[in-house]
Amino acid sequence: MARWVSGAAAAVALILQGCSDDSPTPRPPSVPAVTLRNGVQMPMLAAGTWQYNDSVAEDAVVAAFNAGFQHIDTAYDYHNQVGVGKGLKRSGKARGSFFLTSKVPGCGSQNVSAKSVEQCKTETEDKLVIDLQQLNLTYIDLVLVHFPPCPGDDGTAESPSNSSCYAPHSGCTHPQACDMIRAQWSVLTNAYKKQQIRAIGVSNYCSACLECLAGSEVFPMVNQVQLHVGMGSDPEGFRTFAEKHQIKLQAYSPFGSGGHGSEEILKAGCGMSIPWHVDMRGNLTTSIGNKYGKSAAQVALKWIVSHNVSVATKSANPAHLKANLDIFDFTLSDGDLTSLDKATFASED
Ligand SMILES: NC(=O)c1ccc[n+]([C@@H]2O[C@H](COP(=O)([O-])OP(=O)(O)OC[C@H]3O[C@@H](n4cnc5c(N)ncnc54)[C@H](OP(=O)(O)O)[C@@H]3O)[C@@H](O)[C@H]2O)c1
Questions:
Q1: Which domain does 13 fall in, by range?
Q2: Taking every annotated instance into account, which residue ranges of this chain make up the domain NADP-dependent oxidoreductase (predicted)?
Q3: Would you give the distance in Å from CA 97 to the centre of its chain?
Q4: Residue 216 included in any domain
Q5: Tens-place pLDDT, residues 33-72
Q6: Ligand 1 centroid to 47 CA: how many Å?
Q7: What distance in Å separates the CA atoms of residue 104 and residue 180, rounded to the nearest whole number?
Q8: Is the pLDDT of residue 12 over 60?
Q9: What is the rounded distance in angstroms from the CA atom of residue 296 to the CA atom of residue 282?
Q10: Which of 47, 169, 221, 319 is 20 to 30 A from 60 (CA-CA)?
């Protein structure tokens, strides 16, 4: 049910939610879970750890749990799994009470070879063992293949920063790509069967990549992709494909690409003086948020979950962490959802 507040009250609420670390934000209601195809329950909101070093990641995990998160997102190539593992331990939380997602690198990226399918498979197995060791866990709740393969013309690895690997479809057009996708997937499937992983999925996989896995004994349960206001609600048809194939889509970078949020989504920083002639960005999310007594960030997250998509967000700020969980007590109107669906922002990097 939408919670309508007056403009003045909403402004005060926004200041409290977005600008003060010690605001008495009430503990948010518990986060709903999505049920994966195998029945595993995955909390809809995850606290991400990309770009954090070990010590920041350790503190971020503890802060996320303190705020009420039950789901942490990390990856082999974040180089912070040791810190994440320490944070999990320091939190004192029972293993069954939190959900941990990690990712193994795709073939040809992040030190996994694309020279041969066999080599890629072996190195993926090795990375998975390292994931478990670094996290200091006996099992991981969800493991994703981080990227589609990025083989060069001669089968050697290319940097994942090469745009050909990030382009929506090209990761799967190389002749070896489907073989590599199947090889990596078999590693995850085996670990899943050995109960080292409770659920398996992919990330940054376009539908062509996913089609390489048609007929697999276990099909991906999750596809984690970039999705935020400004991209439209079904970029590249990701959402339609996922719904058709019972894959749970998960959004990353909900505040814009780059890991630092975008002013086009997040209102300009608290305390920042805005010259009168400067375009005040974040206008759409901010003005919609004003109607509900919510911040621009909360509207950006609510738009994603309203489309039945789970989301990995990131914050090192305890007030932001709490606010990011506090999105389940209001409903965006159809008109507001449509405005957010239609928003188009220039992409950044
Ligand atoms: N699979 C993949 O390839 C992939 C790629 C990218 C990301 N991811 C995952 O997704 C996670 C989230 O994406 P992201 O790291 O790009 O970050 P993000 O959540 O889109 O944005 C983080 C930025 O937003 C700010 N922020 C967070 N909550 C806020 C709030 N309530 N109000 C105002 N500002 C707020 C943060 O600043 P403060 O710290 O000051 O709050 C930070 O600067 C990653 O950490 C990672 O786990 C996966």
A1: 7-271+279-342
A2: 48-343
A3: 20
A4: yes
A5: 999 999 999 999 999 999 999 999 999 999 999 999 999 9
A6: 8
A7: 13
A8: no
A9: 7
A10: 221
